[in-house]
Recover the amino acids of this structure.
């Protein structure tokens, strides 16, 4: 198997029989005809507090009202980014440990999980695989962070990198409901749509959530085959995406992938030892994060 086939490469099947459907799906989304998940209220409120010069105490008080978020922030603050420090049990210490910007980015990242759910069991299966993949990519991106990129920004970009697939999936399912005969595509074809459209659509969608431009840039470019010295975040996400595939946590598992041959390897200064440690660390992080 080729190790570095970009997900966005369309297959012959897509090209010959279904090309118009890709266009229809993209046009529907861009025209605003698909109901998109709104940014969860808690993320909006945290952002509002920060914009109004709120401090960490205000933010901790706000997050405390939502037990799900409170637990998630604690879990994050106690995870590998702060390995070696004492475990914290209260939200106020956790938010202090993280800092204002990191709390905002972490709340944004965690709130994205709500977009990865569906009432339809078939869709839910793909979305849950996608969420696991996004989490593995986020943890990989955090581990790959090098000078110039904060771990939380890398985590956020990793978690959101394939959100375009969620949107395309929703659109495809709406279209199927409206016109089951015309839009009765197979699972395989649907996955090809996801691959072909998700970078562009993800970027567009995240604009509606006012996600920082640098994160959107990484989302749009994570399947690029070349990265320059200024492309640290896209390179980190691209490499983390491959780490997740190599670990088998992906819609495209690729255990034979060679990380040292990935387009981002050079600017991330990867070598054999770093790659070996990275794979072990991300697997551990994933287990800790899900099991906590
Ligand atoms: Fe992707
Ligand atoms: Fe991915």
């Amino acid at each position: 198997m080729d190790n570095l086939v970009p997900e966005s490469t369309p297959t012959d099947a897509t090209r010959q029989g279904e090309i118009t459907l890709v266009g229809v799906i993209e046009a529907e989304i861009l025209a605003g005809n698909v109901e998109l998940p709104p940014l969860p209220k808690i993320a909006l409120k945290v952002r509002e507090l920060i914009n109004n010069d709120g401090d960490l105490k205000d933010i901790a008080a706000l997050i405390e009202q939502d037990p799900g978020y409170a637990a998630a922030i604690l879990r994050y603050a106690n995870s590998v980014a702060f390995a070696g420090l004492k475990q914290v049990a209260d939200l106020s210490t956790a938010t202090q440990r993280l800092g204002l910007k990191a709390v905002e980015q972490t709340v944004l990242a965690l709130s994205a999980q709500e977009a990865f759910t569906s009432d339809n069991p078939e869709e839910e299966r793909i979305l849950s695989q996608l969420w696991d993949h996004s989490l593995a990519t986020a943890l990989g991106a955090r581990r790959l962070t090098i000078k110039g990129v904060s771990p939380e920004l890398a985590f956020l970009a990793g978690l959101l990198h394939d959100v375009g697939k969620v949107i395309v999936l929703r659109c495809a399912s709406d279209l199927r409901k409206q016109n089951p005969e015309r839009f009765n595509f197979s699972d395989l074809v649907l996955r090809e749509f996801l691959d072909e459209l998700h970078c562009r659509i993800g970027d567009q969608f995240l604009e509606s959530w006012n996600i920082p431009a640098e994160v959107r840039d990484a989302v749009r470019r994570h399947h690029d085959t070349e990265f320059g010295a200024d492309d640290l975040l896209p390179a980190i996400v691209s490499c983390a995406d491959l780490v997740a595939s190599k670990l088998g946590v992906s819609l495209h598992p690729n255990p034979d992938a060679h990380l040292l041959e990935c387009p981002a390897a050079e600017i991330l200064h990867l070598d054999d030892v770093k790659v070996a440690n990275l794979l072990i660390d991300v697997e551990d992080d994933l287990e800790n994060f899900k099991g906590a």
